[in-house]
What does this fold into?
Amino acid sequence: MFLLQSEPLPAAGDLLPAGDHACGGVVVFEGRVRDHHEGRAVVALEYEAYEELARREGERIVAEARARFAPARVAAAHRHGRLELGEAAVVVVAASPHRHEAFAACRWVIDRIKDSLPVWKREHYADGTSAWVACGCHHEGDTR
Amino acid sequence: MKVTVRYFAALRDAAGTAREDVEGPFVTAADLWAWLGSRHVLGMASESLRVSVNAAYVPWTTALAAGDEVAFIPPVSGG
It folds into this structure.
């Protein structure tokens, strides 16, 4: 399952149905809003998503993880809109009979989400300015 | 042909709009990007972008059809 929503994300335990007693290992990754980035104080983040493509790509990532890391079961959720410090922007949960596949699947999913989910983060800084993260565009005065 | 273009994040800021309906002689997604470059200062090279048609990632060489929704995807920063 892959969820994309503007509301606060469900707890990891609600993303994967409980009661599968075959799964002895459950790994959760939660990406939370951090108070700094490249030396600047961050006060909030805003995530924008191309919703139709993000839902499709999120489902594709979860399905591929289940195929690669079978028998692990995987679910993930990403939030969009404005998030305050400490709030969860993304949750990935993987459950498997043994821990190896659960760790591997969880890590793979968050890495793929960061590579390809059509979601963009705008940081709001303590000095009142804001900027898209790693926007790839040419700014005057860029030295990289 | 007529297609709808959607812009997100830094590209939306550059284009000044989240979406526009355009009509022109473009055939592929790459053609459309080049054609849009003559209308807007978009400030990004196609090498930095991905392209989607009807909410699916596609190669730049994909031929467009009338009524397609095309989005140029700036470097993502989710997660």
The helical segments of chain B are 9-15, 29-37. The mean pLDDT of chain B is 96. The beta strands of chain B are 2-6, 19-23, 50-53, 57-58, 69-73.
